[in-house]
Amino acid sequence: MSNHQDQRLILDADEKIQKINIQAIKANPYQPRKTFDDERLHDLAKSIQLHGILQPIVLRKTIAGYNIVVGERRYRAANIAGLTEVPAIVKSLTDKDMMELAIIENLQREDLNAIEEAESYRKLMDDLNLTQQEVAQRLSKSRPYIANMLRLLNLPQSVSSMVRDGVLSGAHGRTLLGVKDTQQMLRIAKQASRESWSVRDLEKYVTTQFEAPKSKADLAQYTVTKPKFIRQQERQLKEQYGANVAITTKNKKGQITFEFKSEAEFKRLIHQLNEKYKHE
């Protein structure tokens, strides 16, 4: 089912909206979302107390009552608001339909992070035995987009958690996959977060550090604009020491060069550097 089919499922004209006892309703066993923001749930509960549930939830009838197909946030907020009944549409659905609709609803969340999005695509593929192309068609996305998102699941847990928590973006995560050593990847991820690097800054850093020229012929054409944070450090050192400063990186090593034009400038720089280290 596509997103559009999901909407038609809720809005079918021949379906009657029923009032269902909230105690008879249980969560969707295929719901991929395990945590719900308490603050947002309470905000929704206050809105429900004032205005009621504006859009009915969708249920499937079971022997023991009803399972939620779409609308678990509304159901949870209704519980908080103290409602005894909720408006619902009861549908006849297969387990496969239940799985797909739960995952699609999860993908429509506003607060969905990149890791959760990637996990949802993987779950669609695993649970419904779909290919990347079939997932892309169902969700009206391109296959390369799905493939790129799935790459995030290759991140080590330490870096994956930073993307999940919003410390880094999904694009940051995909860039970091170019760093093969896990410890180096984590170090760079923490630095990117600490110094608020843009994705472009991170791309330039990773390229400079880990993608050396393949031959001497490539070397002449191998020029990479310095990342923003390096340019900032050069400016700060220039202001601090009153001399031109160049910071270069290559093959995981770095060099800081101070420029002087006379013996007097050289002695002044040496004196400033010595004085700095005396006070540290």
Looking at this protein, list some descriptive labels.
alpha/beta; Arc Repressor Mutant, subunit A; 3 domains; two-stranded antiparallel ribbon; Transcriptional regulator
Rg of Cα set: 28 Å
Topology as H/E string?
A: HEEHEEHEHHHHHHHHHHEEH
Count of DSSP H/I helices = 14
Give, in spatial order, the strands making up the sheet with the most strands.
Answer: 1-5-3-4-2
End-to-end separation in angstroms reads 65 Å
**Number of separate domains:** 3
CATH topology of the largest domain: Conserved hypothetical protein from pyrococcus furiosus pfu- 392566-001, ParB domain
Could you characterize the architecture of this molecule?
This protein has 280 residues and is an alpha/beta fold. The protein has helices spanning 3-11, 38-51, 72-81, 95-107, 114-128, 132-138, 143-150, 157-164, 170-176, 182-194, 199-210, 216-219, 228-241, 263-278, and strands at 18-21, 25-26, 57-62, 65-70, 85-91, 245-250, 253-258. It folds into 3 domains: 3-104, Conserved hypothetical protein from pyrococcus furiosus pfu- 392566-001, ParB domain, CATH 3.90.1530.30; 113-210, Orthogonal Bundle (Arc Repressor Mutant, subunit A), CATH 1.10.10.2830; 228-278, no CATH class. It has 14 helices and 7 strands. It starts with a helix and ends with a helix. Mean pLDDT is 81; it is low at 1-11 and 219-224.
